[in-house]
Amino acid sequence: MRRLGGAKRATREAELEEARALQTQLLPGEIPQPEGFRIACGWRPSTEMSGDYFDVFSLEDGCMALCIADVSGKGAAAAALMSDLQGAVRTFAPRSASPAELCTQVNQALCRPGPQTRYVTMFYGMLGRDRRLRYESAGHCLPLLVRRDGGVEFPASFSGVIGIFSHWLYQNQEVELHPGDCLLLVTDGILQAENRRREEFGYRRLIAAVERGRAGGADALAQEIPASVVEFCGGKLRDDASLIVVCCE
What we know:
Elements: H1 2-26, E1 37-44, E2 52-58, E3 64-71, H2 75-92, H3 99-110, E4 120-127, E5 132-138, E6 144-146, E7 152-153, E8 173-176, E9 182-186, H4 188-191, H5 202-213, H6 217-232, E10 241-248
Antiparallel strand pairs: 1-10, 2-3, 3-4, 4-5, 5-8, 6-7, 6-9, 9-10
């Protein structure tokens, strides 16, 4: 029995290692830097493969695509769904006229015949040279926008998740960024990280972290915020903690 249990653990650990390797390959390497902005990404993996995905890439019209998502499931199932998601986003983004169109196409691509058990929450935005961000949030947690004067906004959209109903449609939202503003796109692994007293990190602590570290710019925030989350929960992340930081110069 002990040998059998050990074999199962070894198999599970091997599957987890393979899934994590696939996730790492799907995450972006060098982040493009459009004129007037500084963009950085941060990621801290949990002990289990939980399925955070994020990407930043250029579009032909000069816009920047910003995508952050959280796939359901763990381990190999999450890795497979993440691979499908990344492929769909990269395939449809170059010819999608809007975030709503992109989300609609990705949703249809990820839906399968029969009852659906796997799904994705996703934020997708198109950042233009005019400093306008067009976006759609498919069931994903709210972005955080901290203005230069300290004002706080939560650009909202409340569309359904991706991968459940192929007929769902999505809509476009828009927000304008100004010099000195800081936009954060996060996964719930940051917001829902808990300390020993079962308190969540939440938006209040996230806002405080931005206020403390924004002088260091996007790169510093992308490193310091995940580190603060890890410290807050005693080094034991139950879910991946990921974010994209966009600072308007």
